[in-house]
Amino acid sequence: MKYTFPKIAFVILMLACNAAFSQSKLVKNLAAGKPQILVTYGTSLTAAVGGKAWVFSVDSALNKKYNGLLKTINSARSAMWSTWGVEHLEDSVLKKKPDAVLIEFSMNDAFIAYNTSVEVARLNLNYMIDRIKLYNPDCEVILQTMDIALDAHGTARPDLVKYYQLYRDVAKSRHLLLIDHYPHWKDLLDKGKDAYLKAVPDGLHPGVAASKSMIATYVVARLEGEAK
């Protein structure tokens, strides 16, 4: 008699496979009991008060689940951009011997005063990825887009969406995990400027509460393979 695999079992199996496939290497290693070092690298969106809040929350959530096996080093610097990222990659990232690096520089690459074109930002980003992979081919590189700049901050970054698209394009072409926060912030802004400014009081930097609830929660979900 021909055996027919139950449809519901097939669906469950496929969902399980998809979840496992999309899970970050960082989390897979933690789940396997391997100590990991994660370096976060970027702008004030990672280095300032709100940035520190989401980084700490991610670290706490993963360490709670994976028995304290994660060490997170925040090497981001306020007011910096990808050219600074290239120049300080050795001391700020490689010397930390990371197993995973989470990068976000788009917000300040888009800052017109820094005169960093999309093409230069792409070169800088690819250089950082190449250099990290040269240091350790197994090191996982994860890219992030962040929030939306309003008012004077937005005027100073007229092409921010192009720099976010650059991160999406590089992540896709190089098969890297992308944590794309932009759509969530766009959904919030669509509810009205007042609602957005409650989460991002100065129009650029998410507050502590929003950093924990919106950024950290989504970072963990993406690393765990529980969200697209």
Structure, described:
- The termini are far apart.
- By secondary structure, the chain is of the alpha/beta class.
- It is 56% helix and 12% strand.
- The protein is globular and about 45 Å long.
- It has a five-stranded parallel sheet with strand order 2-1-3-4-5, sandwiched between helices.
- The longest helix is centred in the middle third of the chain and has 18 residues, at 118-135.
- It has a single domain (23-224), classed as Rossmann fold, CATH 3.40.50.
- It contains 13 helices and five strands.
In short:
The chain has 228 residues and is α/β, with parallel strands linked by helices.
Q: What is the CATH T-level topology?
A: Rossmann fold
CATH H level, superfamily name? SGNH hydrolase
Number of strands: 5
Mean pLDDT: 93
Q: Cα-atom Rg, whole angstroms?
A: 18 Å
The total number of structural domains is: 1
Main structural class: alpha/beta
In the CATH scheme, the class would be Alpha Beta
- Reading the helices and strands in chain order gives HHEHHEHHEHHEHHEHHH
Helix content: 55-70%
Q: Low-confidence spans: pLDDT under 50, at least 5 residues?
A: 1-21
How far the N terminus sits from the C terminus, by CA atoms, comes to 41 Å
DSSP strand (E) fraction? 5-15%
Largest beta-sheet characterization = 5 strands, parallel
Oligomer: single chain
What is the level-2 CATH architecture name?
Answer: 3-Layer(aba) Sandwich
Shape: globular
Helix tally equals: 13
- Spatial strand sequence of the major β-sheet: 2-1-3-4-5
